[in-house]
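Let's practice the habit of predicting before peeking. Look at the sequence and jot down your guess about where helices and strands might fall. Then scroll down.
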Amino acid sequence: MTTRKKKSRRIPLSVGLAIGALGVAFGDIGTSPLYTINALFYGIGQTAVTHNNILGGISLIFWILTLVVTVKYIIYVFRASYQGEGGVLALRALVASVQKRSKPLLLIIMVFASTLLLSDGFITPAISVLSAVEGLNVATSFFTDYTVPIAAIILTILFTLQRKGTHKIGKIFGPVMVIWFVVIGALGLHQIILTPGILAALNPYYAFEFIGNAGLYHFMIAMGAIVLATTGGESMYADLGHFGKKPIRQGWFYLAYWMLILNYVGQGAYLLSGQPVISGNVFFSLVPTINLPLELTQILAPDTAHIIAFAPIYFMVVLATISTVIASQALITGAFSLTSQAMALDMIPKLNIVHTHRHHKGQIYIPAINWILLIGCLVLVFFFQSSSNLTDAYGLAVSGVMLSTTLAMFQIAKYKWKWPTWRTWLIFGTFLVIDATLLASTSLKLPTGGYVPVGMGLLMFAIVIAWNWGRDLVRSAHVSFMTYASHRDMAWLVNAKRNLMRDREYVEQERERKYVELDRAVVFLVSRPVTKLTDNIPIILRIFMKRHGAMPKHIIFLTIIQEKRPFVAAENRIKVVDFDYNIMSVTAHYGFMQAPDGLDILHTLKRNGYIGMSLHRCTVEASEEEVFVAKTAQFIDKLRVKVYLFFKRISPGAWHYFQLDTKPGLSKTVIPIVLGKQGWRIEIPEFALEAAEEYIDPDTRKPTSIQFGRPRSR
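Done guessing? Here is the structure:
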């Protein structure tokens, strides 16, 4: 009986997750039939509507969808999860973990692929919503001039509502997409029954015949449209951590794959039958109209009769619009998640993150990304005017990401799965040829629209490069300073605290400095964990002591580290090193898919007795670097610093990212970093009270203008 109970519980859970996956993971690929066939025969594909071209085009769509999405992603790539997570950044982390000497070029390619995937967040909502609204033109010409404004209004509402979160309406996404897949499958099946000759397209012979007859250039142009059928494959992989392999595979094999095939083949059957394609829209031409009896049409007003006759099309437009909004929502949520992961890995500047649900920290809203995406979508909608034109900008980014995934899979198969070389090349070599062909085909779109995702991707990649350049040099400045200040280690601090607790006043013999004890606990937010007596004293404490001439009664060094793995279990999160004399170091570990919560860490320390006094008497001291550029610095370095400082200014501090900017009290310490001819260095000048007549530049060793207060040598 116990076994039966377990089984009865598992089945609904599995089905529920599969339905949930349909509402999130399959939104992008599920709405591709709206524009793929249109693009192939009436748009960028430039393919003549002939018997052989119809069979060949549908055959290529069937086999590309089967090989790339079903075999490559669902069967093989889904096995390459990193601690249950999928996506470009998770795959990059997996490659780095299985091959310690990973080729830097591959890792750089995957970073660029992540920027391409983010650029896709501009195009997918625009083309999806626009293609759905265009269905109105099949029913009536009245909306022809209003298609673009209607799509813009829908997108504006969608992005405006992001700050409220999707937890209230998210539960209906899955059921709506189930209805969508069933309806598009039924529409396709109806046409297949009417024109069964289209089933010959399942024979790969017609795909090869199409390739042979089209010629290289026209074949490449056609493939630039056919790739649109696969655009959601990478999104499914990115959602692996939300639902798991099994539910996504169930949703694909039990419903989505077959309904997509039925619809694509059904659209081919409609073309093969020779029926008129209304407004160049094959998808909505599949929807039947209601033939009203003549007697009824004479009774009803013309507008009423028209609405009743075209009611199925209006219903389909509404369903398609809702489905494309759901698909767009999945892309927007994915963009937030990808940005959050990149911030956690310190690849890009920190941005303000709003948690839209108090209990589910994975539901986030990033205002800056949201409004940038909205502006980008609106610009694309008004610039390209139609989904047919917008397909010129679509597909290049996705094909680039798919190729980078295949390159990474070579490393996974060889070093993680221990496959023999022949097997690796047989399977992923085949996918490499397909993906390279798709990338080459979509590259032909560069002059007509492909520049949009490439330009956005390059811009975001430049931001990644500039940010990491600045962060690396700031870190090197800290390292060089700590090397200089090696005589101030934790052993010195412990000794000073011991003497201070004994005498209530400690005099440092070397410089005759006096330190007193402050009756409070201070948490110093530091970037490097302090675990040994030989570790250097964090610079933020040195500045605190110089500024106040005092040491806190309780000194707590807090380091929050986001690992290059998705999750860290709660029981393994916090590690405490007690140096005695009220000095302790706390290191908290989070995964890049988790939201660090500094306040929660402090409460945990209090519950466990590490912080004995009430939190209102505990302050947090956070550091903030201020970069100064010496006149002797090179021009290119000055330019780089300006770019880095721009992003640093718009980036909230670490204390905000770690949710420490509300409670308890927060104090910020400025760490001056100077860029000179000899690189970056940290300087902590001590100013004498008397006015100086000249100041010696540390780079040139020459006097400069008169200043008040001359820095004394350290």
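How did you do? The chain has a mean pLDDT of 79.
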